[in-house]
Specification:
With 282 residues, the protein is α/β, with parallel strands linked by helices. Helices cover 44% and strands 18% of the residues. Strands 3-2-1-4-5-7-6 form a 7-stranded mixed β-sheet, with helices on both faces.
């Protein structure tokens, strides 16, 4: 049975030494480092936009739930906030320390945060609740609102879908429609300030879908070519692997280049993720 804590522990143990940035265990473990750097850059750009829209003041006390290897905790400090990171996985926090995270870090579950009521000016959740089964997501969201001070802000970045709240992208991803994310959080006692789409990457998504159509989404060849290294020494696998990532080295930069235009002309629901900004009134 799927357990978020066990899942992330296995990633920390298996991919914690894959790159100096610490991106491998928290983004795409089987992808090349350049790919994860590109995704991180996009996410950081979106988070800065969200922080600006939320009007988070310098010195604000920020909790990053599911901080993983500490990338956001470190950046919150660089942006002038008083950051604290929490993660369920000790292995992730150990990687965060080796990657230079100086802010306080603690262990805990999103569904049972180890903090008093109204402890933080801002709570962030960057692709965390999407990895919690649907039946447990409401409890995690309630906990984040509970530790938020009146007038505090809550920032979520989560996978969105267009097939209803029970759609699942993978065995460990439990997305919702944008309206369902919004209603689920507002039911906890906050109100939506704004939301926008994140990671459209249209050209790259078209290419990946084409590759999946040609080879079959669940085929062993697709899984191998999407990995950093093919798991078979067969000529077919080796050639497909090289071609697949060489082409993505074109489609990803091109997608990022046109991303600002796509964001302006496409509905936010077409993106792969949504960034949601909420305000706690009392």
């Amino acid at each position: 049975m799927y357990s978020p804590k066990d899942y992330w522990s296995s990633l920390a143990d298996g991919y914690g030494s894959m790159d100096t940035s610490g991106f491998a265990p928290i983004l795409h473990p089987l992808a090349p480092s350049w790919f994860n750097r590109s995704i991180d850059d996009l996410q950081f750009r979106a988070l800065r936009r969200a922080l600006a829209l939320a009007s988070i003041k310098p010195g604000a006390k920020v909790l990053d739930v599911g901080c993983g290897t500490g990338r956001w905790v470190r950046r919150y400090g660089e942006l002038g906030f008083s950051a604290l990171g929490m993660d369920a996985t000790i292995g992730m926090l150990q990687i965060a320390r080796t990657r230079g995270t100086k802010a306080p870090l603690t262990t805990g579950l999103a569904q049972n945060l180890p903090f008093a009521d109204a402890s933080f000016d801002c709570v962030s959740d960057i692709t965390v609740v999407q990895h919690i089964p649907h039946e447990l997501q409401a409890k995690a969201l309630q906990e984040m609102v509970r530790v938020l001070r009146p007038k505090g802000r809550m920032i979520l970045m989560e996978v969105i879908c267009r097939k209803g709240p029970r759609a699942e992208r993978d065995s460990h991803v439990f997305p919702r429609e944008p309206r369902d994310w919004i209603s689920s959080v507002e039911n906890c006692g906050v109100s939506l300030m704004e939301w926008f789409g994140q990671e459209f990457l249209l050209a790259d998504r078209f290419y990946v879908r084409l590759a999946q159509t040609l080879f079959g989404r669940k085929s062993s060849l697709v899984k191998q070519v999407q990995s950093t290294y093919p798991r078979s020494s067969s000529h077919e696998s080796s050639v497909a692997h090289r071609v697949y990532w060489k082409l993505r080295h074109i489609t990803i930069p091109f997608s990022i280049w046109i991303e600002p235009t796509v964001e302006r002309i496409c509905p936010a629901s077409l993106a792969t993720h949504g960034i949601f900004i909420f305000r706690k009134e009392s």
